[in-house]
Amino acid sequence: MAAVGSAEVTVRARGVSRPWRFLAGAFLVGALLVGLGVGPVDIGVSAIVESALSHLPFLHVHSPLSSLDEAVLWQIRAPRVVLAAIVGGMLAIAGSSYQGVFHNPLADPYLLGVAAGAGLGATLAIAYGHVGHSGQLLPLSAFIGGLAAVGATYVLGRSAGSVRVVGSFVLAGVTVTLFLTAIQTFVQQQHSNTLRDVYAWILGGFSTANWSQVEVAAPYVAVSSIAIVLHRRMLDVLSVGDEEAASLGVNVPRLRLVLVIAATAGTAAAVSVSGLIAFVGIIVPHTIRLLVSTSYRAVVPLSFVVGAGFLVLADVLARTIVSPAELPIGVVTAFFGAPFFAVVLRSARTMR
Amino acid sequence: MIELRDLAVRFGSTEAVRDLSLEVANDEWVMLIGPNGAGKTSVLRALCGLLPFDGAARVDGRDVRTFGRRELARLMAFVPQNPTTPSELTVAEYVLLGRTPHLGYLGVDGRRDRKAVAQALERLDLLPFAKRGLGSLSGGELQRAVLARALAQEAPILLLDEPTTSLDLGRQQQALELIDSLRRDGLTVLSTMHDLTLAGQYADRLVLLDRGTVAVEGSPSEVLSAANLAAYYGASVRIVSDEAGLFVLPTRR
Questions:
Q1: C or N terminus of chain B, fewer CB within 10 Å?
Q2: What domains can be seen in chain A, in order of their start residue?
Q3: CA neighbor of B185 nearest in space, from B219, B162, B205, B157
Q4: pTM of the entire structure?
């Protein structure tokens, strides 16, 4: 029995080991500081920290910044950085969840039609609601469109058959996406004056970020992410397939529904305030799989942290490279993310 | 004790299993044999709640449909013919999945679970492999990892679908010896089996299924006759027996 006692040590699921936890946390904090500090007015790290402390009660720290710089930091940059962080974290954690739920490494948060639904919602709002690129109607309409599209996919996928459930949901997602994209294109053609606004929204970005957008998206992102993090062990169980997971006592259809609802609600909220930002939901979880661990105990929580930092940095590049103009953030995530991922892919192969 | 009465399993309009009645005593090893498509796998899957069925299926007198999913998984461990073994999971992580029915819905494994896993690993001589990825294991080692996962489930009933598939002859014998040795800890085993000679040597009792129902059942020497195998498998065989057991030898017509 002594052997068993000592063996207990070896029986551990690899969660997030301490060095990786530290590294991921440092990456996010670093990204946030860069995001707050870099811009037309450069603000140093110590100034940011002191200014932040000056807003806390009882500390009696005085901000070293002028009132103008204070406004730039807290009313323009901070909401933008925070919004990029919660959107990036949400897209990455939703992507990791979809990949586990659908046993599909190429699944991204838009798999079930969120993007097409939100795109149609946004287009309708722009074409008939006479809103500009900002305003409250646009995000609301995109949010509802995204949820409705995934709802339609779910109903269609379930009626399509229970035998190969996973496949039928993915195919239903493709069907719904094609159908809604057709409607969206039609509406766009009928209102060609909206093309520019719709296109700008679809490319995504944070140029209009403000605290009210953070307030809109944050509750959904928080609830969704926490729900997914709580299910990280269940995602590992799903990796042995639906039938074996069921033989281990798991209610697979219900588990899948819960995770899809969580990932979809969070994604729809993220998309409604940021547009369609591709790539984050695939590249971040896979980078973690290749570098840290394939267990969802590690992939899920790290996806949020790393996804948040990644999108903050991508946004910094989007607003500085061609300053004072801005690049669409989707261009940045793909242009810098793809080569980075190629390097990770190659080095991971030689490591094995 | 497992008790099946007039079991019927349907896939659409085809009946995979019909009027099947069968009992397995505690600590017994019963093997289901029969030609392809006879319904062997469907019986196992129905019993452990993966397929809807008509008729009765009881364990210790209680209808299996009255058990909750997790309760059922604590009662029976099912090993499919081709288990999914994600190549990146370590052996320890994989075996730990067997603890799922013992954990709360969102629960995380504790000391007791890790101890059960360590015991299962030790029982199957897998301790040195605990940290290895499943993808780096040989077929025989992989089969042991799958058995370890079932063992970690700590279920008194083991349902094995073709436990020797894709193993070489020596590994087949080792796997069966291993299952036999696990029974000493008190384990009821119901398995399907392709190889009739091995079935005859390891089973306490054989049940020959044909077109979804029991055709012949009894001791290996009763079931494995040239006449039975000709009638139900359409096979031409010679049965040879000596003190070591019974051998089913195919002969060319």
A1: C
A2: 18-351 (1.10.3470.10)
A3: B157
A4: 0.88
